[in-house]
Amino acid sequence: MSRRRFHPRWFRRRTPIFWWLEKGVYVHFIVRELTSLAVAYAAALLVVQVAVLGAGAEAHARFAALLASPWAVGWHALVLVGLLYHTLTWLHLAPKALVVKLGGHRVPDAAILAGHYLGWLAATALVALVLVRS
Amino acid sequence: MGRPTEPFFWTLFSAGGMLAALVLPAVCFVLWIAAPLGWLATPDRAGWLALLAPPLARLALLALVALSLFHWAHRFRYTLYDGLQLHHLYGLIATVCYGGAATVTLVAAYLLLRLG
Amino acid sequence: MADATVTLEVQRYRPEREDEPVWERFEVPARREWMVLDALNHVKDRLDGSLTFRWSCRMGVCGSCGMTVDGEPKLTCATPLAARGDGRPVRVEPLRGFPVIRDLVVEIRSFLGKLKRTRPWLIRDDDVPLAAGEHLQTPAELADYKQYSMCINCLLCYSACPIHHLEPDFAGPAALALAQRYNLDSRDRGAAERMEELSRHSGIWGCTFVGECSEVCPKGVDPAGAIQRYKLAAAADWFQSILLPWSGQARAKRREVAR
Fold it and tell me: How far is the C-alpha of C200 from the C-alpha of C206, rounded, in Å?
């Protein structure tokens, strides 16, 4: 009789490098996370704008011309899509983390979401107010 | 790995994410699509300098830039760990991401100070 | 009258004779009211008695029969067999994210360890004598944590969570939701103790809010929501500890009442 206990060899599945390509939900998750690149780009471009502002009128004019080129506008349209996707996914996830109770009852997710959309509208109006000259 | 700094960076990520979500789409549309295409008018150079003259305005812009960058840093760090399974580069990725965000923030602070 | 059949494609793994899992097909009757579990039991009763799998209540409350059906984590007792109706085989594999012991049975000891570490019991610092009576709780206080108490430990959420697949040390959705179940219970005083254990990378901070855990949960626990709330609470707590270091006691009290 063998004194060694038999221990079955467990099978462990290896997680492939591109695990996130296997399911639509995971692809969507990674795309959602990659919108942070659009956020970083926008922040960096704002810094560039400040730099250009400090570099004199000619630099400013050249930069404005660069921004007006079709390639730039097309690229920034893509950036805008990324930023919008960030906004939409972020706002829709916010009700999960923010549990607000009024008078002993939990405020429904739809109300929290509506509040966030209103906030987005207000922020957009503010940006327009500050940046747009008629 | 018990990292006592996680709550701090998560808060920056969270605040940055919210701010970016609310403000950046409008900023991008106005400044980099509508204005270059001539759909809207934005301040000329003198107008920009006047807009950014008050210290509070520069602080607000710095806050927007900093929080957006730290939002990216935290999120991208995790995307690299999980998306590409780069756990063995934990320290390096964290340094590059947060360090990068901090560097650009410092550059922005310097530029904004110099404007005045 | 020829009985209609459904093809069941089951993953077998017998370590004593194979190194890797293999697929086996079985034809089972296409009974309209059957669940996948009924089909598996039919296989075991009539076709191959060596098929090994876990099940118990067959009504979705014990959490034993979690498996991967057609690529999705499901309770086999709650998954209709003939739902698709297109004649393709129904694929049944063990729950993903755990080592396979045999056939459809997975090793869940890692989860049990994580569960224990979250201290899923009422923690109190006082010794209330029996004569003092029960702890009273209002319906509103019950509503605060009830959703998170519905967890049946079926581990479908772990199967769906990519972070769990990538980092086996990750506490995971169920353990964290259960920690919240106790944190939010008005009778509990252990939030600080749990926070210490779970406020780390292998705890709540490893979660990147993929959200699949809540999607697959058969009991509507919403572990993803529980974890995000936990992050917010942990961050607030951390800031208070940094900005107001003397507020230790006030913070402990705050954790009790902050719901």
Answer: 8
